[in-house]
Design a protein that fits this description.
By secondary structure, the chain is of the alpha+beta class. Helices cover 41% and strands 16% of the residues. The two termini are 13 Å apart.
Length: 243
Amino acid sequence: MLAETPIPQAQNTRSNQTCHTKNTTLNNTLPNTNNNQPTNTKFVMNTTQFKRLPYGNSDFRSIRTENYAYVDKTRFIEILERENNKNNFFIRPRKFGKSLFFSMLSYYYDINHAGQFEQLFGDLYIGQHPTSERNNYAILEFDFSGLDTSNEDRFVISFSQRIQNVVQLFFSRYENIFKDAKTFIQQIDAGNLGIMALEKAFRAARANNIKIYVIIDEYDHFANDLIAMGNRYGKDFYKMMIT
């Protein structure tokens, strides 16, 4: 049964100061009131520069490299790794930062971003306390927003196609790991494998001794629509789709 993963209160820490003061020196020429001769005077102005708020931006790398403010949530990484249940289900209202948190997890665990670890995490909590699992996975990341839930048949097609596209992108991203990645992509496309494309990804990972980290975002988008559809037609479409 899916349950909410206990999440402790957010730490009141930041990766860095969200603003800093800049001294600007201005040269100006003013008359000397004693002898009417001009004199050079310097004015020093203090201007405060604030980091931008990342409204609508849930890409962790963009926020960390483009001078956006970021509240450090990386302490939760080691907490999650200590959980007995490795399948964690996050229940939070919309706009509570779930997508940004998943993006942060993706960059932390992705083997392809090992070279960027110091840039992205160096001054954060997890950068000072890295776990043994850092940059040790191939990331299989699903975003289920925008699926066609207008009716049952269209949803099945839309859902299957989304999974197929994600698996093809997975092989494309990790061509450096899977030597047959291009062949797998062609086979998936030619066979229109849909959901069955997942088995090809898992088999390839096992054959190459690669661990996969699966992230599923925007799950509630289609789930809420299916529940509403079932209420309209007297069927439990949601249960039918997940069983």
